[in-house]
Fold:
Amino acid sequence: MATRRNQDTAYVVRDAPEDVLHDRPSYPPPRRSTIRPLGRMTQREPNPERRPDESAKFPTHSSLPPRSSSSHDSLPSHSSLPSHYGAARKRTLSDSVDTTSPVGIWVDQLLICDAGLEEAVLEQLLQSPGAALPHLSRAFRGMASSAPLSPPQRAVLDRAFIAFGPAAMPYIAKLITSPDRSVQERAASLAEAFPLRDVIQSLGEIALTGNETERARARETLRRYRRSAELESLLQWFHDAVTSTHTRQVWRLRGIEALGALPHRLSVPPLVTLLGDQDRSVARMAHGALVKITGHDFGRMRVSWSRWLRNKGGLHRVEWLIDGLADRRVEIRCMAAAQLAQETGLDHGWTVHASYDEHLAIQAHYRRWWERTQRYF
Structure:
C-alpha cells in the first residue's frame, strides 16, 4: 500500500506500482473550491408552487378495464355445491354490535332481570334472532360488562341460546373457536344440547370460511369427532368443495387443508384425483394431504397413487401408517409414527431420533397390537 500527498490532502492508492503514484493517480481528491464550508451554507430556496394541470382528468368508469368475470373471482352457486355451503357466506358473525340498540338493551335486561321476567324478555329477543344472537355471543364472552358473569347469568345465556334452536349453532361454533379457554369449554358444554350433526356442520363451515386462527381451532375441535359417523357427511361436503371447478381457489386450498387435518380413508380417492388438477397449487396441497393421511409418498404422479390405491385401498388407515414405518426416508417414517401415535394413543417408545432399525422394531410392536385390537376400529 502506498500513500501520496497532494498539498494538504492525503489519499491512499492500494495495490498500485510506484510509476502510477508519481505520474497519474487513480482517484484524485476533489478540489477545495468544490467543497462548501459548513458555516457558509445558504438557506435552501423553497420549491416553486405546484399548480394542478387543468387539462388532466380523472379516469371515468368507461375508461377503466372491465372487471374479470372468471369463476375464480365469483362465489360458487348453490347448484354446484350442497345447499348449506353458501349459507356460511351469508352469515355475519361480528363482534361489532351496537350496545345502544333496543336488542342490546333487552340482552342487558335479560342478565339482570328476575326469574319471573326472564321468559318475557326472551320472547322479545326471539322476534329478531339475527340481531339478538350477536349480542348474546358478545355477552357470552363477557364483553357486555366489565364484571365477570355470575353462574346464574351464564345459565340464563345458555337457556337463551337453546331457545333459538338451530339458528344459534353457528354462533356457538364461533364461540368454540374463541381464544379464551374458558369460553371454549363453556361453549363446548353448551353445544352438547344440540344435535351432533349441526355442531360438526357449523365447525366445518368455520374451517372453510373463518380466519386462520379460527380455522385451526375448528380443525382441532373436529378431530375429537373423527370416529363419529356424522363426520362422513362433512367430509363429503369438503370433497364436493375441493373437486368443484366453480369453487374459488382459496376455498379449495382450505378444504384440502381440512381434509389433511381430518385424516380419513374416504378422502384419499378425491385427493388422488386432484393430483391431475390444472391448478398446480391445488395439486401440490393435495399431494401433501395424501402423504399425511396415508404415511406414504409416491410423488405427484396420479398413476403411482392410483396403482397403490387399487392394491392397498381396502386396508385400514392404521395399516397404511404401520407400513409407512419401514420407509427408507426419515421424514416419512417420522410422520407415519407421529400419525400412529395420534391415531392410537400409543408410541411404543418412538422418538424423532429413532434409527431405521428402531422403526422396524416399533413396526413389529404395532403389528402385534393391531392383530389384537383391529376389531375395535
